[in-house]
Amino acid sequence: MADMMTVSDYAQMFESSLPSFVPLAEHAKADMRDMMLYSLESGGKRVRPVLCLAFCELCGGNAENALAFAAAVEFVHTYSLIHDDLPCMDNDDYRRGKLASHKKYGESNALLAGDALLTHAFSLFAQAVEQKKVSADAAIKAVGVLASCAGVNGMIGGQFVDLAMENRESTIDDLFLMDRYKTAALIKAACQLGCIAADASDEMIEKAGLFAENLGIAFQIIDDLLDDEDETSSDKVNNKATYPALLGERQARQLAEEYTKKAVEALSAFGARSSFLQTFALQLVNRKV
Ligand code: GRG
Q1: Residues 24-43: pLDDT tens digits?
Q2: Mean pLDDT over residues 174-198, rounded?
Q3: Is 217 helix (H, G, I), strand (E, B) or coil?
Q4: What domain range includes position 275?
Q5: Is residue 237 over pLDDT 80?
Q6: Helix, strand or coil for residue 149?
Q7: What is the H or E stretch that residue 98 is in?
């Protein structure tokens, strides 16, 4: 029934299942579950889980079976935001209008909350196999994809490139390179994990990756544009190169539209059933938050 689902249906489905994926802290001294939930449930848009669930259904699977994979990606995303806000990184006191994790729990605890999310993300694959949601083969494939998209040749690599670019003149190609890793890689993991949960063919997994690589760049351009409207943005304070800073607002928006178009084109391999994802991609380029 993929065609009947809306973004908020998928997001709601994810939201209701989320607490079940967060572990209890057995020692319960400082409640780590609360710390993890604080950042997991502080108003994220759930873009990655929605993509994961929608790709699962697009490939003929049952979205319920992809919930653990969607949670794993959202855990990694959430850890990255907690660490990104730390004083040694972007030094942001607020995230989504609420106190950043380190402002609420202290810097060392925020570091641990991020570590706990990252570590637990990978135990969710084993859990999904134990609960017979996916096959062991699918889980192994998914672990490989997420680890690679989150690591040296994925998000962490992108963050490293980002830091290396600070206080240097950057070109638009530098931004493309950085964002392919920093932002698009995790979006790619979300899309491909959805396909893997549905036992999709390698060809479909590849096409989902192509969609995500383009959507990810469009997503970051819009993120930069929205950030540009915010005078207190850490990008401004840290004097970072962004698409609007290099191209101007109008051209940056045009570029985001071009990348969205390329993403939508990659969906043609999936036929008419991809209309949900086509619409979602267009909504993301027009988003206001
Ligand atoms: C390991 C110390 C340490 C730091 C790592 C990996 C990392 C820091 C940061 C990741 C890079 C990062 C924050 C990329 C930005 C990607 C991006 C546009 C995030 C915002 O995504 P949304 O809009 O967020 O989906 P919401 O709030 O909706 O969940």
Answers
A1: 988 866 689 999 999 999 99
A2: 98
A3: helix
A4: 2-285
A5: no
A6: helix
A7: strand 98-99
- Is 194 within 8 Å of 69 (Cβ atoms)? yes
* 242-282 pLDDT tens trace: 999 999 999 999 999 999 999 999 999 999 999 999 999 99
> CB atoms < 10 A from the CB of 146, how many?
27
Structure tokens at 215: 């959507």
What single DSSP character describes residue 99?
A: E
Whole-angstrom CA distances from 71 to 21, 57, 245 are 7, 16, 34
Task: Give me the mean pLDDT over the 63-74 stretch.
Answer: 98
Which residue puts its alpha carbon closest to atom 15 of ligand 1? 183
The Cα–Cα gap between 16 and 2 comes to: 19
Task: For residue 242, give the 3-state DSSP assignment.
Answer: coil
The total number of structural domains that make up the chain = 1
Q: Please say whether the beta carbons of 147 and 125 come within 8 A.
A: no
CATH number, domain containing residue 248: 1.10.600.10
Decide: 191 and 208 in contact? Cβ < 8 Å.
yes
pLDDT score for 73: 99
Per the prediction, the chain carries an average pLDDT of: 95
Q: Among 111, 112, 182, which is best to mutate for testing ligand 1, by the most ligand atoms less than 8 A from CB?
A: 182
Amino acid at 193: L
Pocket test for ligand 1, best of 96, 159, 227 (most atoms within 8 A of CB): 159
Going from the Cα of 57 to the center of ligand 1, the distance in angstroms, rounded, reads 26
